[in-house]
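User: Fold this; C-alpha cells only.

Assistant: Input:
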Amino acid sequence: MSAIILASSSPRRFQILEQIGIKFTVDSAEIDENLPGLAAAELVKALSLKKAQAVAEKYQEGIVIGADTVVAVDGQIYGKPKSKEQAREMMQNLSGRSHEVLTAIALVDAAGKKKWVQKLVSTKVFFRKLTNEEIERYLAWDEYQDKAGAYGIQGKGAVLVEKIDGCYYNVVGLPVSALLDAFHEMGVDIYE
C-alpha cells in the first residue's frame, strides 16, 4: 500500500482520517491561498490541488491528500475570519439563512506527480435565526478562529445550525464518501 500524506494541519481532517481507520502522516502545505476572481467551487478545487501538488513535490512516492473548504452565500466566499469583527459579520449574515459549504479534495500520486483525482462536494447548511447575544456568546468561545464561515458544526457551532442537506463530514472539512471514491479511482486500497 502507498503511504498516505495529509497536506493539511487541520485537526478536524486529522480526526476524520483517524476515525475511519486510515494510517497517514501529516505534511502541511505552505502555499499562497490568494487566488482572486474565482468562484467558490473553482477556488476550493484550485487550492486543494495546489496543496496536494506542493506536498507531493517533496516525496518520491505516496498519495497526498489536499483539501480546501469555504462557505458561500450570495456570491460571497467566507474562508477563515481574520478577526473577531469579521467573524461577527459572517455570523450576522448567515443568521436565519442557508449557505453552501464547499470542500474540494485532491489526491496526487507523488510517484507520478501527474496522476491525480479531484472531488467537489457541496452541502447546504441552514442556520437558526440568531440573536446578537447568541452570536456574542459563540464568538466568546473563540471556536470561530480557524474555521471557514467562522463556525465549527462539530463543536459548539452545532447550536447555530437548524439542519443540513448533504454530507455532514463535508461541513467539518473532509467529505468521507468522496474521499473513499477518490482513492478507489486512484486504484488505492487504503485498508490493505
